[in-house]
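Why do we care about 3D structure at all? Because function follows from shape, and shape follows, mostly, from sequence. That is the central idea of this module. The next example makes it concrete: a single protein chain, its amino acid sequence, and then its structure expressed as tokens.
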Amino acid sequence: MNYLNMQDEKLLPVVVELNTLLADYHIYYQKLRNFHWNILGENFFDLHNKFEELYIDARSKIDEIAERILTLRYHPMSKFSDYLEISSLEEVSPLKSDREMVAELISDHKLLLNQMRVVINKAELASDEGTIDLIGGYIRALEKSSWMLDSWSKKTSEHLNSVILD
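And the structure:
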């Protein structure tokens, strides 16, 4: 037991998964910087600003995840080589079109959301409400960002599911 009144053996799996999420967010952050710097074309202003908004948010989450790991009385991973080794996200070339960049981010969001759900599952087993609360907010925000990027990538002639409107 520790000052959080949680058992270390139950917290260790939470910390492992938080470190994986930390690695994922570092790769995602750098990809956003890459896209922010290298966006070209008619959507430059919209996407340049959006990518900046997203990387500022990611930078904040990186710090919060690391601080949560410290709160649980463990050291967060801090070597980029370790991040590359355990992350499910991959580095990419900056030589992508605007649509390819957005598609890449939507794909990364799926991976981030999957990892967040793994963290929550482990945190539930440890009765770690602090981590559950933190990651739950991340899920909500990332789902909204995913919706916005997905909507941007659609043609104006496309429609959402209209089953309940029929």
